[in-house]
Design brief:
By secondary structure, the protein is α+β, with helices and mostly antiparallel strands. The chain is built from 46 helices and 29 strands.
Length: 1246
Amino acid sequence: MNLQGDASGVDLRVLVQNVGGQAASRIPNSVAQQPGCAFYGFVETMLVEDTVAEVEHLLPGYEVWHCVRPRPSRGRPHGGISLFVRCDSVWRTSRGFRVTPDPAAGILWVEIPGFKLTVAICYFSPHGSQVYQLDHMHSDPLSILFAGLREADAKGHKHLVMGDLNIRVGGLSADVPSQLAIPPALEEPSTLPDLHHLAAIPQRRSSLDRSVPNRQRALAFLEGLFASSSVVLNGRAPGDTEGCHTCWSWSANDQLLGHSVVDYACVSVSLFQVVSEFRVLPFIPTASRDHSALFVSLTGMQPCYSTLRPRRQRVIRPQGAGYLSALFRARSRFAALLTTWRTAAVPVSTALQQFIDLLVSCAEGQGGSATSAPTRTRDKPWFDAQCRTLGQAVDQAWATLHASRGGIYGSQEECPLARAALVAARRAYKTYIKEKKREYELCCQVALLETYFGTEQKDFWRVFFADRRPSTALADVGAWTEYFRDLLGIAPQPDALVPSDVALKQQLYAASPKGDADAMSVLNDPVSVEEARRCMALATGRAPDMQGLTGEVLQLAASDDPVLRDGTPVCPPAIDCAQWLLQSILTNTCVPDPLCTSKLVPVPKAKSPAALVDMDLHRGISVSQLFARSLDRFMNKRLESVVSRLNLRSPTQCGFRSGHGTLDAIFTLQHLVHSAQHDGRLLFVVFVDFKKAFDRVRRDLLLERCRELGIHGEFLALLVKMYDQISCRVAVDGALGEPIHTTTGTKQGSELSPLLFGLFIELLHDMIKLQLPGAGPILGSLRVPDIMYADDVTLISSDPVEVQQLLDVLSIFCRIFDMEVNLAPHKTCVVVFRRPRARVPSGFRLLYRGCEVARQPQYKYLGVAFHETRGLAGAADALAAAGSKAMHALLTRCRKANLTQFDIKSRMFDVLVEPVLSYASHIWGPLSFKKLRAAPYSTKSEKVHTAFLRIMVGASKSTCVDVMYKDLHRIPVMYHWVTLAVRWWNKMSAARQGVQPMACYAWVEDVKLALAGCAACWSGHILRTMHCLGLLESGWRQLPLESLLAKSWQEPTVQQALGAMFMSRFQGPFHADPRLAPSKGVSVCQYAQWVSPLNPQVDMYTRAAAPPHTRLCLPFARLRNLAQLRTGCAHLEVEQGRKRRPTVPRQDRVCRLCSVEGAPQERQVAVLARTGISGNVEDLKHFLLECPAYDDLRAVCPAFPADVYTTLSNPGCVAAVMGHSDQAALANTLFHMKVRRSELLELPWV
C-alpha cells in the first residue's frame, strides 16, 4: 500500500462476512481467507454490550468498533456488527476519521474526510421479522441507509456499502437507467459527472439467483441506489461477472437445500472506476454458518491533502500483569529459540529479529485494543435512569407545547402554561445532568489522585500533559533531512597538522593517563547472564523507536517474578537469549543493520518562539532501536567501570559521571569566587562554549582517543564497527525522512555517547597540564585550571597573563582536534569576579585567535547566574521568574483537568514548580539563610509560593500569610533549601572516605574559610544556620578542622528543628475571645481559638498531619469558600469594613442581615435572644453560629449539633463545628450559606 498518497493513489481492501454468531471462533478463520485487509467487517455477530470483550483482541494491530443491539428480553441476541481497522493504515490515521454506530438501523458508519469517503457496514434483519418490534428496531432501515448516503453526497463524499441486507433482487438492474445519452447541447459534459461515470458501467447485471420473493422491496432498494447515485457490484464488477451466490441453506445432515444472493457491495457511480476487484469468496463452514465473504479492492484512491495528517506510529508499550503472564507462558518458546541458535548457524541479524518478534507477540497478545468513545450525552457513563426520566419529561413538555400550537408547524398561539412547564422541565434536566457530570468528574479526579499517589504515576502525567505542544514548529521533514545531512552526513576535511602540532599531539597522548593491557582486557570478557539482565533494564516511559517499540518490552522481560518475589526473573530464557545476542555481537564484531539505524528527533534547545523556528537552535536526539539501547548500555557500563576504577577520568570533569553533577561544578566555582574575594584577589573566569560539540567531533579522533586509552580487542573493533555504520532518519510529527548515513559526531541519545565525548574533551585538561603545569588555583592538593561539565568548559586563573595563556592552549587544542569555539558574546565570554570596589586592570582584554573575547558582568553557568561582584546572590531572582511561569502554567492545567483538591495541587507544586525555584539551592540557598527566622516570606522565590497559595484559596493580599501556610499545611520554600544544603554537606563529608571528587576539595577549603572568619562563604552560612536551629554548639569556631569536617546531621532532625521554628510563629498566649483581641495578631488568634487549636507537636513535613479539608474532592467554589472562612478572608463585614475608606470601626461592622435597621424583625429578635446584644459584628462566629438567616441550612448539616445555639458561650463552640469530621458536608453547607448571603444582600458572588 502506498501510504503517502502520491500520483498512484492508495489502495483500500475490505472484507465483510456474515459470521452467524460464534464470532470469537469464526472471525480468525474469516480473516485467513484474505489477510492484510485494511478493513474487516463482520455482521450478525450476535454480540451484546457484555460480550464484546470476546473479540476485542482477536486481531493484533487492529482497532475495533462495535454496533450492538440491546440484549433481548427473551430469546437469543440478534444482529450485531464488528469492524476491525488496521491501526497503522493511512485510513485510520487520516485526520477526522470517525466511526458512528446506529444500532437501531443496523448500520456502522465510517467517515474518512481525508479521502472524502464514507463506508457503511450493514446488517438488516429479514423483512417482517419480529425483531423489529421486540428489539425496538427501526422498521425501515433502507430509508436510514439512503438518507445517510445522501448526507455523505452533500459533503462531497463517495461511499461504499457492504453487508447482509437480506434482500433478493435477482437479475434486476434498475439501479442503472437504460438511456445514457448525453444531450448534445451540453457544452461541458463534466457538469453531469454521474452520467459520464454511468456510461462506463455495464447496464445489465448478472446473477445466479433468479428468484425475487419480494419484488416491491427489491425495486425500492434498487431505486434508492439510483437516487443516491449508487450501483451494485454483485454480478457487474471485475471478479464477479456471474453474480455468485452469497448465502447457503443447509439441512441438519449438511445437505444443501438452496442458495441465494442477499449480501451486497454497492459503491458510488464515481467510485466504480477504481474498483479493481470484487469477489464472493468460497463458502467455508469454519468462517460462517451460511454466508460467503465479500471482498472489494479499490485502487488509486486519492487523498485530500488539506485533511490528511501524518501517519500515526503504532506504539507497543506493554503493561505489567498481562505482558508478564504472556512472557511466563512463552518461556518454552524462548528456550527453543535459544536451542536453535546454539545448534544451528543462525546469523545474528536473523536471531535478533526472531527475538524481537517473539517479544512483540507477547506484548500484542496481552491486549489493549481501543474502542470508540461515546459522543452522545445519553451514552456518557454518568447518564443514569434519573437523567433519562428528566429527559423524557422534557420531550413530553415539548410535545405538549407543540400540541398547544396545533402541531410542530402549527400557527396557533401557544399555551403559556405549556411554555412554563417546558422551561421548568429543561431547567430541572440541565441542573441535574450538570450535577451528575460534576460528580463523575470528581470521581475521575479521585481515580487520578489514586494513580498519582500509587507506584505508577505515568497515567496521571499522561492525562495531565495530554495537550502538550509539539516539540518543534518546523514540520518539513525534507528540510530537516537536508539540514542534518549537511551537519552529520558530510565528512569534515581537516587541514593537515604542522609537524609541531603532530609532535604536541604525540606528547599529549604519552602524558595522558591510560590503562595497561591486562586491566583493559576485562572489556573483552564474556557477557554474563546478570550483565545481560542489567542491560535489559531500560528506562521506561521513553519515546518509541522506529518500529514503535518502547523500553518496557525489554525491561519487563528482565523483571522479577511477581509471584515468587525472590529475585527470580519472570522469563529466564529471554535473558539467556539477550545474553547470547550480546555475546555474539561482541565476539563476531557483527552489528546487525537495524541496530545501526536510529530515529533522529529535532528538539528545541530553548522554549522561546524564536528557538522553535530556528534549526540551529535545535538539538538532534537519537532514538535507537530497542536492542541497540541494550547494546549501548552494555558497552557504557563496561567502559565506565574500567575507566573509573583506573582513575582515567579528569578530576575537573563533572558531567555524566557517577557521583558527579552540575552541583559539583557550581559549588567549586562559587568557592573559588568567595576565596578570591576574601583574599582581595581578582578571579578571571572564561566561559567557553563549543559550537555543535557533540555533532562536530570527528569520529576518527574519537576512536583514536579510545585506542590511546588502552582499549583494544573485540570491544574496540565493535566500537569501530558501530560508528562506521551509523545512519538515521529524521522524524517530525510522525513523518520519517530519507536515511542519512552519518560520518561525524557522536550518536546523541545513546548512553555511550556522553562517556566517549567526556573522554575526548578531557584531553583539553591534559593539554593544559602539559603546557601550563602551574596554571590555575589550588584546592588542597588539586590544581584547578578548568572546570568541565561535558562540553561546558571554564578556564580559571587569578593572573590576567595566565588566563590569556589558557586561551592560547584552547586554541591549539581546537586546531589539533578540529573543534570550534562559539565566540558569540552570550556564549563565550570572560567574567572578572572581584569585590564591589575592586577595579579591573586598565586595558585588560583577552584574545582568541585574534578576536577579542567579550567581557560580561554576569553569566548563566549551568542554569544559575554568576555576577562579577555578587556571585550567586542574585541566582534566586532569575529562578523565581521562571518559577512564576511554571506556577501559572500549573494552575492553568489544573483548571483544564478539573483538579480542585488542595493537597494534590500542593504536591504538584512541589513536583513541578519547587524544583525550578530550588535548582542548585544546595549551593546558593545558604546566602539567604539569615532571613530564616525573621523574614522567611521575603524572598522572591517565596513570593511565588505565596502567590500560588493565594490563588488556590482565593485569598486577598491582606490575609495573614502565617495562617494561610498553617491551614494548608505548607512551610516556606527556604526551609527546603536548608534541608538540601545539609544534604550537600553530608554528601561532601561522606565523600572524604573514598576517592575525593573536586567538589570535596573545594568543600574542605570552604570550611577552612569559615573558620578563618569569612562571612560570605557557603560553609559559614550553613554552620551559623545549624547553630541557630540548636543543632551545633556555640563554640564551633574553636573546634578542630577534622572534628568539624566529620559533622553530619540527619535530615529528619533538621526538619524537626525547622518545623519547631515555624510553629514558634504561632506562640501565644492568645486572648480567649478573638473579638476582644488587639488588632495586631487578631488573625492568628482567631485561627487558634475558632478554627484549629494549635498543636506545637504537629509535624509540618508529614502529609498525614494536614487538615482534612485539604484532601476534599469538591467543586472549586466550595473548597475556596471553606478555605476563605478558615483563613479570615471570606469578605464578611468584619474584613470589608477594614478596607473601606474611611475605615469603619470594628464595633460598627455589624451584620446587615440581622443587626441593622431594616432587617426582618424576627431575625433581630432571634439574634438578640442568642447573643444578648443587638449590634452583632459579622465575623466568623456570627456567620457560622449566630445569624438567624441561615438556621434552616444549619439544621440539615451534621456538623452543627442540635444544641448549637445553647453552647454559644462555650469558647470552643466555633472550633467544634469547624473541626467536625464531616468536612464535605460542612463545606457544602457553608457554600449555600454564602450564596444566600450574596442573594439577600444583592452582592456579586465572590
